[in-house]
């Protein structure tokens, strides 16, 4: 009996192992020079698109179109690397700039957006205190009708307040050396350049010479008898 149980377990593991291997083999949808495009890649690409664009890649034809787009994307990427463009100074500068912006965005999301969130109570309290501002033709507009608009406006105000305070604290904690003379020099140079710009020389209009009439030579015909 035990022998049958052991055999069953071994058989199950073998079948499971084969299935896993087959699943791994079949995971990729496309392989380009060893780089695989998987079902997960496809899913991520679709999810990154806005809702209206996602509909373009629905169904069999849509999926085939998306796979083709991913193939093009990978081909172009590999070709760019092959040509050494990933080591180009201009490219590296753009990458550095992009990284800076991404880091700033991550910082703002953590330090500003999270701290500037408003509760429904905050929005309603503002509405109740300023109800007079929400009247149309003598009738008060219901809270639910202005809630989203208020939420956007108040959140933007709160974010600005938090942002300004956060930046002011950073200015106090970091050593900032402002070269006022150099900055003033920039504005002076700009003014000097403006003064150096001369007005275009106006060309004098060309005088039209009077047309000279040609004098006719006297006729040499003999008088008739």
Give the topology, please.
Elements: H1 2-25, E1 28-32, E2 35-38, H2 39-48, H3 51-54, H4 59-82, H5 89-113, H6 120-129, E3 135-136, E4 139-140, H7 143-173, H8 180-196
Antiparallel strand pairs: 1-2, 3-4
Helix pairs in contact: 5-7, 6-7
Kindly describe this structure:
With 225 residues, this protein is mainly alpha-helical. It has 2 domains: 14-87, Helicase, Ruva Protein, domain 3 (Orthogonal Bundle); 89-173, no CATH class. It is built from 8 helices and 4 strands. It has helices spanning 2-25, 39-48, 51-54, 59-82, 89-113, 120-129, 143-173, 180-196; strands at 28-32, 35-38, 135-136, 139-140. The protein has a two-stranded antiparallel ribbon with strand order 1-2. It has a two-stranded antiparallel sheet with strand order 3-4. Strand 1 (28-32) and strand 2 (35-38) form a beta hairpin. The longest helix has 31 residues, at 143-173. The radius of gyration is 39 Å and the shape is extended.
């Amino acid at each position: 009996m035990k022998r049958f149980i052991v055999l069953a377990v071994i058989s199950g593991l073998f079948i499971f192992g084969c299935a896993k291997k087959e699943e791994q083999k079949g995971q990729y949808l496309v392989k380009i020079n060893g780089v695989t495009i998987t079902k997960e890649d496809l899913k991520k690409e679709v999810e990154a698109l806005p809702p209206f664009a996602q509909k373009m890649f629905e169904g069999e034809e849509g999926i085939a179109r998306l796979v083709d787009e991913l193939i093009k994307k990978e081909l172009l990427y590999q070709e760019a690397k092959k040509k050494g463009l990933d080591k180009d100074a201009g490219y590296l500068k753009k990458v550095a700039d992009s990284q800076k912006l991404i880091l700033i965005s991550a910082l703002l999301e953590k330090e500003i957006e999270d701290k500037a969130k408003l509760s429904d109570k905050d929005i309603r309290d503002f509405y109740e205190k300023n109800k007079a501002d929400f009247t149309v033709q003598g009738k008060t507009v219901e809270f639910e009708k202005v809630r989203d608009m208020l939420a956007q406006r108040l959140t933007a105000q709160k974010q600005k307040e938090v942002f300004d305070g956060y930046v002011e604290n950073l200015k106090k904690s970091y050593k900032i050396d402002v070269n006022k003379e150099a900055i003033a020099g920039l504005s002076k140079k700009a003014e000097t350049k403006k003064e150096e710009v001369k007005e275009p020389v106006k060309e004098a209009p060309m005088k039209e010479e009077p047309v000279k009439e040609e004098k006719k030579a006297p006729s040499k015909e003999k008088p008739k008898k």
